[in-house]
Structure formats: C-alpha cells, structure tokens
C-alpha cells in the first residue's frame, strides 16, 4: 500500500524495538528536558548515525512505504514530458539543470531521463545535467546504482558535490546534501514526497493560549516517549501562529518554508520552474503527523529511527513563503494533473503494446492506484512555481505591439503538444 493520506484509518503498529536511537534520545531528554516535535523528527529521520533515512530509507515494495514513481513508470514519464513542455514554452534555452530534492531510489529521475532520451531529437541542442539533493548515504548509493550502474566518483575535488557520475543515458549527475550547494543556473526543480519528510512544529490551542507540543521521556515508564505541552509560549509559538488562526491544532514546517524561498529566489534570478508533488492541504488540516513501518501506520513515538515519519504539506504556507518572487499554480489533485498530462492515452498505448494478460492487469492496477480518488488520486497534489513572465506578459512600453498568447502550463491545463 502507499502511505495513507491523513485521516485514513489503520492500525497503529506497536513496535517494541528499543534501538540505539531511543537510548540516544532518552539520554538527551533526561539531560536537557523536552524537545520540539521538529527536533525529534529531524533526529529520528536524518540523524547521521541512526536516522531512518540514513540507515533504512525504506522506499519501495520491500520497504515501509511505496510512492507513485515506484508504482508506475508512467508517472515519471509524464513528469518528464511536463519539463520538456515547459522548456519549449520558455523558448528552449540551450542548457538546463534537472534538480531533484529527495530522489528516493532514483526511479523518478530514471523515468524522466528515459523520456529525455526518447525525445533526444527535440533536446538535441540542449545541454542537460542532473543534480540530486540527498542526505541519506544509503539512498544515494541506491540512486547511483539505478542511474549510473554504480559507476560514480565519490568526493570529487573542488566541488560542492559529494559524488559524481554519468547516467546510463550519458547525462552528468552530481549529488549534494543541500540545495544551496547546487550551482546556480537555469533549473527545473522536482520535489516528490520530499516536503512531507521535513520536520514540523506542532501547536495546541489551550485555555491559556497557544502552547507548543514537545516530546519528553515518560517518568513512569523507562525509555518510553510521550507528548507534553510547553508550560509557556515558545519562540516558535510567537513566530508561526497567525493572530487570525481559527484551528485548535496547527503544524508548521519552517524548513519547507526556507527551501521554497530558496527555490523561488533561484527561479526568479536564473529562470526555470519547480514542480512539487505531495499529500497535503491548503492550511485547513490539524493533526496529520504519522509514522509508517512495513506499509502500516506506526506510533510516531515508538522505536524512533525504525519508521518513516511524515506530515501533510501545507501548500498555503509554501505559497506564502514564495513571497511573490515567482507565480504559483495549484495545488491541483494528482488525478487531474495526470489526466491533463495525457495518462489515459499513455495507458492505452502501453496496453496495446503489452502481449500478456499479467502485464495488462499490472498496468490497470497501477493506473488505479495513481488515479482512484480513494487511493492516491485525490490526496496527492501538484503545485508549481513559475517565473511571472511565464503566466503574464511583462508590461511593455509600446502597447501597440501585438502579443501572442502565452501557451498554457501543462498539467494545470490540458497538454498541447505541437
Ligand atoms: N522522491 C522519492 C522519495 C521520497 S522519500 C519518491 O517519491 O519515491 C523522501 C526522500 O527525501 C528520501 O530520498 C530521503 O532520504 C530524502 N530526504 C529526507 N530529508 C531530507 C533532507 N533534509 N534533505 C535532503 N533529502 C532528504
């Protein structure tokens, strides 16, 4: 099963695994008191020694959760077409970087690069390079195998990249730990199920005002964690809760805000576009923090480091953090985006080309997973950042000059392939 969208039911798995991460956290909490949920999540997911992504990184069928690119090749192919369609609409610049944040097993990039290869005649005069932002050594190794067959150079000299290689299709690939290390330049950014993995702060409205939810050690039970409320307002409460807030419980992901700001600044300065796809809401949901292990819901405070922790992405917050530097489109539901991108036609072609019943059934099953509103079709969303001039003609002094209409942005409108 895919990671369920928040609110979907499921049995929380009681894991009794007392690992090194729990001992590390318990020591820390006993020594210096409760930590924010964001700090807990950061430790549990990306601690350099024991973090979930660092060690386990369980994307895929044999892991803890499955994602759209792992379900169907069509997903990545349509995203590849989105980038080509935007590249064409923006006047076919002679070079671009494809920058993916949190590439998982590298499957999505692999599917995109296959489309780039199939459309090599269209891209022939364009210099393309791939830049992957990944903190997990374990997943970067898997990405290297998927994309280059394992032929990579670690720690290249004079580079901010920690690894370099050439894709099986001949495109240079570099790996970084931080988006800030990626060289500037015209870039197409991609973040699929990335923002949901970034640490969130949680706040609860009480009779005494807003309080931050913290993680502490339970004094009654050794090495068991529990949620507590901060006794007074914390700096985060003051920063992140808007006076007009009407919800009783709010989650905020400042790191997502910082990264989106960086994307917006880079696009404003050097051009390109960003596509963000994730489950999320538009500033309406409350408690969405949850854990996954072996494809089941998992208690977020139990056996940290052994389960994926995630929270819905607040697209209204991302839009706010763009601060008008770029235009934004969406969020639009995954099933609408993929329909606009021509998924039905692509499915028909694949069905016609597949000889055996098992493959056909697999194609129909994966289509249903991606598109069914009860599965991933409705709760996953697409959101884009685009330069303002991509959507509105910049004001020209000479008003008499006739302006041809700007081509619609595929996915958010029907794809028009010329
Ligand atoms: N996009 C992939 C994987 C999603 S899982 C897919 O859809 O299949 C989240 C990915 O983000 C993993 O690759 C994880 O290692 C990476 N990640 C998590 N936190 C990160 C951070 N702070 N910086 C960079 N990568 C991070």
Automatic annotation (TrEMBL):
InterPro entries: NDUFAF7 (IPR003788), NDUFAF7_sf (IPR038375), SAM-dependent_MTases_sf (IPR029063). GO terms for cellular component: mitochondrion. It catalyses: L-arginyl-[protein] + 2 S-adenosyl-L-methionine = N(omega),N(omega)'-dimethyl-L-arginyl-[protein] + 2 S-adenosyl-L-homocysteine + 2 H(+). One of its GO terms (molecular function) is protein-arginine omega-N symmetric methyltransferase activity. Keywords: Methyltransferase, Mitochondrion, Transferase, Transit peptide. Its EC number is 2.1.1.320. Gene3D superfamilies: 3.40.50.12710. GO terms for biological process: methylation; mitochondrial respiratory chain complex I assembly. Signal peptide: none annotated. It is found in: Mitochondrion. It is an enzyme of class 2 (transferase). Arginine methyltransferase involved in the assembly or stability of mitochondrial NADH:ubiquinone oxidoreductase complex (complex I). Acts by mediating symmetric dimethylation of 'Arg-118' of NDUFS2 after it assembles into the complex I, stabilizing the early intermediate complex. Belongs to the NDUFAF7 family. This is Protein arginine methyltransferase NDUFAF7. It comes from Sylvia atricapilla (blackcap).
